[in-house]
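Hi there,

I know you've been waiting on this one. I reran it after we fixed the sequence typo, so this is the corrected version. Both the input and the resulting structure follow.
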Amino acid sequence: MDYDVVVVGGSSTGLIAAREAAKRGLRTIVFEEDRVIGRPEKCAGLYSIEGVKSLSIPVKGPYLQNIVRGAVFVSPSGKHFEVDASRDIAVVYNRERLDLYLAQQAAEAGAEIHVNTRVTEVGVSGQNLLVRTSDQIISTRNVISAEGRTATVARQMFPRYRSGKWLPIIQYMIANHGESHDMVYLYFKKYLPEFFGYLVPVDDEFGKLGVAASKGTQLLVDKLLRENFPHAKVVGIMSSAIYVGGPLEPMRVGNFFLAGEVAGQVKATTGGGVVTGGKAAEAAARHIAGQGTYEQLYRETLRELKGTYALRRLIEHLSPKHVDLILSSLADSGYGHVFANVGDMDKHRTTLVRALTSKTSIKLTLNIVAKMLTGAYV
């Protein structure tokens, strides 16, 4: 065997997998098809502080752009529901710099990283797996696929592999956004039925404005810009795709593991997958090192992802009037402090359960019933 572990894909998930495997004494190599780790940037870079700590990532580093304390939800009719934790709860990172830092961690742990190298095939040879690239064949006992949406080798190893729903996303870097730099803004528009628009501030001046939609994405982000940020200027643009489906099972066949977006290990409500994918990467490395089974180690996170996907399916059936009703009732019932106290950005299912079992839920229910009886929301 040439290596104990081959990691396909140098995303954050793949690099965490390499770091965790290498620090356990496993001979590890990473193959990344792009020329530069972290490029192209594919997300807004908003992560919970507890989440990055759980992945052994220092909260403050060369990748840190901003720290936020809450979120503002804007309904289709313009009503605001604010969740202010009055403490630092999330960070905004430069994704390229974050991935470069993770690559440094992996390399310092002993992993080899090869860029501009695409894995074209993975096959079985007795007890080993053969990994083919454009210029070599490597024998290994274990492969961790963190290849993302392409899923080239995942489809080879899982004949029934089916990817879930992906949405194209366009994100602008805008100047002069005019909002508070320590709050994230979510816009629920009638013309955005598939996903909310968002503003993730980098500082008082710059922010990341994004829209995801199956079609007309460019026109929709321009519309959001005109409506809510008429004085802002676009100084950069990024396009990618986010996963909004459910987690895929099985996640493993023999010694071939799926981790991250390729396994649908993404919060379907927000498209965020760095923390959940990172936990899968660690679980796979620990499995290979004989410290438990992948399925057991990832069980709780998988449960959260399934619950989050169910929540997204529910939200998809809400009309703009229903969204208005819910957000206005949350605001009127003083629910902001409830979410601030029990909320967890990486555990939407748990957050919802905790919030609905709080004492304030009775006030919320009465508020919703009262508004329905007045005929304001029918």
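Quick highlight: Residues 126 and 141 are 10 Å apart (CA to CA).

Best,
R. S.
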